[in-house]
C-alpha cells in the first residue's frame, strides 16, 4: 500500500491521532536532518567546512518533535548544536548548507557558520556559541511575550552540559517569579563534550533541576518522536496557559562525537550500538508506520534515495555559491552608519 | 532649568517611556526602592510595575533578559546598580548584545541601553571603584557613552534609548548630585559628537566623565599662569569623535588626556594613537596621559586620593607639554 492510498489512516498514540500526512512529514524531516548531518560530516572531512561543527545525528526526534508541537509564531533558540533545529523549523536547507560552507547565500550571510544559525522569519533566534548563553536570552523572549501579552511561547533549548551554567538558574528563578511563557528543554544526550552526566551533575535527573524554583519538570523519551511530540504538547499548553515555565528533559543520544574533532573514545562501542540499533528514532517511526499499514519498507527505501539526492543537490547548490562579498565585512556591526567609524582606524589620511 | 545629574537622567527615561511604550526599565531596586542612587525616583508610580521592574540580584540573567527582549523589538533599559557588577554580565554584553547583529547576518538587532554608575566612588575600596570603559569601548557593536554634566546626561540618554543598537551608558556615581542647567523641552544630543567645553589656544585637554570637571578646573588654574587650555569632552567613547579632537590639536599642537581609569590600553592610549596616526605633523610635543595609578583602589583616604588624577596633576601635565614645567 502506498501512502497516498492511506490518507485516512494513521496512528493512535496514547489518545492522540497522528494522520498519515503528519507521520510522513515527521519521518521525512528526521530523515532529511540525518542525511544532511551525514553530508555535513563528509564536507567537514573534505575540509570544506571549517571550525567547530556539532552534529545532531540521533537527536532528530527532539528537533522534529519540538517543531511539530509548537506554532510558527513561537520563539525558539538553542546552543551551537543547531542544524537539526533550524532544518526542522523549515528554514531553507541550501542556505543552511551554504552557511556551513561560508558562502554568500548562507542563512546569516556567511558570518556565523555552524554554531550561529538564525532565521528571524521562522522565529529561530540562534545558534548561540557560549554554553548556556541562550537561556537568559530565551528568558528575554519570554518576557517580551508577557510584556506584550502576545500568546507566544518560547522554546529555550540547552544540553545536559548547559544546564550546569549559573545563568540557567538565574533564568529559572526569574521565569518562575514572573510566570513567563517558556518551555525550557534539556536535550540530555548524556555527555557534555567528553564528560558523562554522572561525572558532572550531582542530580542526574535533570527534569528535577527546576524544583527549587517551583518549575514543574517532565522527563520524555526523546528517541520516540510521537511520544516526545505528544508530551511536548502538554508542556506547551502549560506555558501558554499563563501557569509559568516548565522544564522538559528529553532523553536522547548523539551518535557522533561532541564535534567533528571528537572521536568519542569516552564511550564504549556497545553503548553507542545499543542506542543506534536499539532506539534509533527514524527506525522506530518507520516500524510504527509499517505496522500501521501507512508505508512499506520499499517506500522508505525510495524516500531515503530521494532525500539523499535532495541533500546532494543542496550541497552542490551551496558549493557553487561564491564566498561573501568583501564589502560584507563591514555591514551589520551597527544598524545605522557611523560617521568616521570605518575603516577603523583606517588609512592615514 | 537647573536640575541635578540624577534628575536629568530620570527626565530622559520618563520622557522616552512616555513617548514609546516599548521602553521599560529593569534592574535591582529600580522600582519600589526608587533606585539605589534614586535615579528612578517616582518612576514606578508613574509607569507601574510592568514597565519599572525590580529584579533579583542576578546581573547575568537580567542582562540576558534585556538582550532577548531587545531582539523581539522591545527597547529595554537595563540598570546595573554599578558597572562593577556588570562584570558578572559581560558574556551577555560582549558575546551576545554586541555580536548578535553581525552573527545573525543583520537579522536581529539589539536596541537597548545598559546603564548605571561607573568610575570611582568614595571610600568603597577596590571592587566598587574602577573604570571599565576601555574594556567595553574595545568591542565593535557596542556604543559607549559617558556624560559629564546634567545637560549631557539628559540629551545623551535620550539619544541612547532611541538608538537602534546596544549602548553602554556609564554614569558617574560622584556626579549624581551635581546641579546644572538643562535646556527646557525636547533635548537630544546625537551620539558620537564631542563637545568643546572650553575654548583655548595653547593646549588641548581631552577628558571624559568626572574628569571633565577636573580638566575645566585645571584650565582655570592654567589661565592664571598664562596658559590658555581648550577642554574637549568626547562624551561618546565609541564611536570616538576624532574629528573634533584633531581639529583642536591642529590649533594647539599640544595634548593632555585625562581619565580615572588605568593607564594600560586606556582611553588616553587610544586617543594618543589616533593623534599619532592622523595628526602627527600637528604635534609639537608628545601627548601626555594623566591616568589613575595602576593599583586596585585602596580604602584609606590618602591612598584613594593618590590613586586618582587630581587637578594639580592635570595642571602639571599641561605645563610639561607646553614646555613650562
TrEMBL record, chain A:
GO terms of molecular function: pyruvate dehydrogenase (acetyl-transferring) activity
CDD domains: TPP_E1_PDC_ADC_BCADC (cd02000)
Oxidoreductase recorded as keyword: yes
Catalytic activity: N(6)-[(R)-lipoyl]-L-lysyl-[protein] + pyruvate + H(+) = N(6)-[(R)-S(8)-acetyldihydrolipoyl]-L-lysyl-[protein] + CO2
Pfam families per UniProt: E1_dh
InterPro entries from the UniProt entry: DH_E1 (IPR001017), PDH_E1_Alpha_Subunit (IPR050642), Pyrv_DH_E1_asu_subgrp-y (IPR017597), THDP-binding (IPR029061)
Cofactor needs: thiamine diphosphate
Protein name listed in UniProt: Pyruvate dehydrogenase E1 component subunit alpha
Organism (species): Mariprofundus erugo
Gene name tied to this protein: pdhA
From TrEMBL, chain B:
Pfam families from the UniProt entry: Transket_pyr (PF02779), Transketolase_C (PF02780)
UniProt domain Transketolase-like pyrimidine-binding: residue ranges: 3-178
Enzyme class, first EC level, given as a word: oxidoreductase
CDD domains recorded: TPP_PYR_E1-PDHc-beta_like
GO molecular function: pyruvate dehydrogenase (acetyl-transferring) activity
Catalytic activity, EC: 1.2.4.1
Domain of life: Bacteria
CC cofactor: thiamine diphosphate
Keywords (A to Z) from UniProt: Oxidoreductase, Pyruvate, Thiamine pyrophosphate
PANTHER family (UniProt xref): PYRUVATE DEHYDROGENASE E1 COMPONENT BETA SUBUNIT, PYRUVATE DEHYDROGENASE E1 COMPONENT SUBUNIT BETA
Protein name per the record: Pyruvate dehydrogenase complex E1 component subunit beta
Organism (species): Mariprofundus erugo
Lineage: Bacteria, Pseudomonadati, Pseudomonadota, Candidatius Mariprofundia, Mariprofundales
Amino acid at each position: 500500500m502506498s501512502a497516498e492510498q492511506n490518507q485516512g489512516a494513521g496512528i493512535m498514540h496514547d489518545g492522540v491521532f497522528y494522520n498519515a500526512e503528519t507521520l510522513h512529514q515527521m519521518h521525512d524531516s528526521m530523515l532529511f536532518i540525518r542525511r544532511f548531518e551525514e553530508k555535513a560530516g563528509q564536507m567537514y572531512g573534505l575540509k570544506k567546512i571549517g571550525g567547530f561543527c556539532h552534529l545532531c545525528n540521533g537527536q532528530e526526534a527532539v528537533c522534529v518533535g519540538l517543531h511539530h508541537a509548537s506554532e510558527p509564531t513561537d520563539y525558539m533558540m538553542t546552543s551551537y548544536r543547531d542544524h537539526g533545529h533550524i532544518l526542522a523549523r523549515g528554514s531553507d536547507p541550501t542556505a543552511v548548507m551554504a552557511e556551513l560552507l561560508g558562502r554568500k547565500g548562507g542563512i546569516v550571510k556567511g558570518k556565523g557558520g555552524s554554531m550561529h544559525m538564525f532565521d528571524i522569519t521562522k522565529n529561530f533566534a540562534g545558534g548561540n556559541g557560549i554554553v548556556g548563553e541562550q537561556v537568559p536570552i530565551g528568558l528575554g523572549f519570554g518576557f517580551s511575550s508577557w510584556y506584550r501579552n502576545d500568546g507566544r511561547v518560547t522554546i529555550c533549548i540547552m544540553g545536559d552540559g548547559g544546564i550546569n551554567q549559573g545563568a540557567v538558574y538565574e533564568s529559572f528563578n526569574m521565569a518562575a517569579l514572573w510566570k513567563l511563557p517558556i518551555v525550557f528543554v534539556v536535550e540530555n544526550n548524556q555527555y557534555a563534550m567528553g564528560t558523562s552526566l554522572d561525572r558532572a551533575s550531582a542530580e542526574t535527573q535533570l527534569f528535577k533541576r527546576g524544583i527549587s524554583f517551583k518549575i514543574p519538570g517532565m522527563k520524555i523519551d526523546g528517541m520516540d518522536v510521537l511520544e516526545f511530540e505528544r508530551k511536548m504538547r502538554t508542556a506547551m499548553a502549560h506555558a501558554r496557559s499563563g501557569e509559568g515555565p516548565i522544564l522538559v528533559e528529553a532523553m536522547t543520544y548523539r551518535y557522533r562525537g561532541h564535534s567533528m574533532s571528537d572521536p568519542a573514545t569516552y564511550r564504549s562501542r556497545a553503548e553507542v550500538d545499543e542506542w543506534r540499533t536499539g532506539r534509533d528514532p527514524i527506525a522506530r517511526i518507520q516500524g510504527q508506520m509499517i505496522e500501521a499499514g501507512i508505508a512499506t519498507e520499499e517506500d522508505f527505501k525510495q524516500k531515503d534515495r530521494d532525500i539523499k539526492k535532495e541533500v546532494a543537490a543542496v550541497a552542490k547548490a551551496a558549493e557553487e555559491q561564491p564566498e561573501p562579498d568583501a564589502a560584507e565585512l563591514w555591514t551589520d556591526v551597527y544598524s545605522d552608519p557611523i560617521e568616521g567609524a570605518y575603516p577603523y582606524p583606517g588609512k592615514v589620511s | 532649568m537647573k536640575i541635578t545629574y540624577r534628575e536629568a537622567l530620570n527626565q530622559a527615561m520618563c520622557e522616552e517611556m512616555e513617548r514609546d511604550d516599548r521602553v521599560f526599565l529593569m534592574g535591582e531596586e529600580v522600582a519600589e526602592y526608587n533606585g539605589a542612587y534614586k535615579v528612578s525616583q517616582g518612576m514606578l508610580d508613574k509607569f507601574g510595575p510592568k514597565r519599572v521592574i525590580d529584579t533579583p540580584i542576578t546581573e547575568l540573567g537580567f542582562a540576558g533578559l534585556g538582550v532577548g527582549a531587545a531582539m523581539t523589538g522591545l527597547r529595554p533599559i537595563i540598570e546595573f546598580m554599578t558597572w562593577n557588577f556588570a562584570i558578572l554580565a559581560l558574556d551577555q554584553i560582549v558575546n551576545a548584545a554586541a555580536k548578535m547583529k553581525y552573527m545573525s547576518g543583520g537579522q536581529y538587532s539589539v536596541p537597548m541601553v545598559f546603564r548605571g554608575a561607573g568610575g570611582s566612588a568614595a571610600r568603597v575600596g577596590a571592587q566598587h571603584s574602577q573604570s571599565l570603559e576601555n574594556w567595553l569601548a574595545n568591542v565593535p557593536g557596542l556604543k559607549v557613552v559617558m556624560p559629564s554634566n546634567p545637560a549631557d546626561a539628559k540629551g545623551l540618554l535620550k539619544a541612547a534609548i532611541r538608538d537602534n543598537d546596544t549602548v553602554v551608558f556609564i554614569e558617574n556615581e560622584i556626579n549624581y548630585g551635581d546641579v546644572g542647567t538643562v535646556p527646557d523641552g525636547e533635548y537630544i544630543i546625537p551620539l558620537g559628537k564631542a563637545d568643546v567645553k572650553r575654548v583655548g589656544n595653547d593646549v588641548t585637554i581631552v577628558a571624559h566623565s568626572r574628569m571633565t570637571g577636573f580638566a575645566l578646573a585645571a584650565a582655570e588654574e592654567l589661565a592664571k599662569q598664562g596658559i590658555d587650555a581648550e577642554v574637549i569632552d568626547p562624551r561618546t567613547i565609541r564611536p570616538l569623535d576624532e574629528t573634533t579632537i584633531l581639529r583642536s590639536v591642529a590649533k594647539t599642537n599640544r595634548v593632555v588626556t585625562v581619565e580615572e581609569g588605568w593607564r594600560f590600553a586606556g582611553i588616553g592610549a587610544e586617543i594618543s594613537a589616533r593623534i599619532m596616526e592622523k595628526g602627527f605633523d600637528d604635534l609639537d610635543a608628545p601627548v601626555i596621559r594623566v591616568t589613575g595609578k595602576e593599583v586596585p583602589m585602596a580604602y584609606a583616604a590618602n591612598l584613594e586620593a593618590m590613586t586618582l588624577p587630581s587637578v594639580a596633576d592635570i595642571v602639571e601635565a599641561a605645563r610639561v607639554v607646553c614646555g613650562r614645567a
